[in-house]
Amino acid sequence: MSNWQIERFGEWSANFGLIKNKEWVNVTSLRRKNLGLNAINVCFVLTDSDSIHHLTDGKNDHIDTITKVNYPTINHLLDYLNASKNYIFTDTWGYKNNNSWNGMTGYIVRGEVDIGGSPMFFTTQRMSVVEYISSPTPTRSMFVFRQPKLSYENNLFLLSFHKYLWYGCVSLLVILFIALFFITFWEWKKTRLENSMNLDSTVLRPNVSDIAILIFAATCQQGSHTELKGSLGRIVLLLLFISLTFLYTSYSANIVALLQSSSSQIRSLDDLLHSRLSFGVHDTVFNRYYFSIETEPIRKAIYETKITLSGGKTRFMTMDEGIKKMQMGLFAFHMETGVGYKFVSKYFEEGEKCGLEEIQYLQVIDPWLAVQKDTPYMELFKIG
User: Can you give the pTM of this predicted structure?
Assistant: First the structure.
């Protein structure tokens, strides 16, 4: 207990009435911000017991990152209020279980702490029992993956040309086939009339199979032992070989380019769900909780089909393991991006970083600091 603090509001004068103190500050939360070393109880969440020894030295800053970032911020807040510090540590942010709250939320609800030092996500249940005052540390958790090669998702032999270009190629071959057939028939008839005894075996015969084989050979950039002898026939053959040479060259160049390209088809959670990628999730308290309570159909399907395995096993894993699998490709890893990209810088080559894509999964906003409902320190904490 401390002594009553007396504030000098002003003086009363018989001649002038109330004379207000010139140093008086109307805003109560500013006027009374000095708490005179009264103790403020603060709760921090530490999922790793060793983190209590590394709150300020920067060691293992990928573990309990949000608490380590906010620990000095809370200290500055209490220094601003001239309050003494009393810390309590727990291993979870707090979830409702059998009509009672555990973790940091439980401490706040029971009035055992004045402020939660580790920011936590908004939930409908929490909003009814605690008050959120500030969001000091923006954070993002997403599925991060390397876009698979284009050949993994598509048939490159068909993708090399646009659909309408394929139609044009087939139409060109049909037109050339018809033209060659009629020219061959005309030349063959003319040759037989002029010299019925000495028919050259290299002259193209007017039947469907010979002409089809000639066009197929030209398409494969191969020659043929038969040909047309007339000027008109040779012009059509020249047109055939030139056209198919350009098409063959363009097709081959596109194949080479596409072999080096990444797919861009995975743009949403639905695409991710129906892709052939494997999945993994960083093993944290809030990831396990939020993944398990999802009710939105696509998100629920991801958890039930991609994260939960037969036999009760799950794909929750350490950050180190997840990043290494993501580097190997064909793997989507859900992580807090601020921490995760530190590991990406550690393991990935510069060229590998360019193909990374992100897709949001958790439907939450940035975490906020929470305090007791109707606490007298509310405005002091907000201003501080």
Answer: 0.67
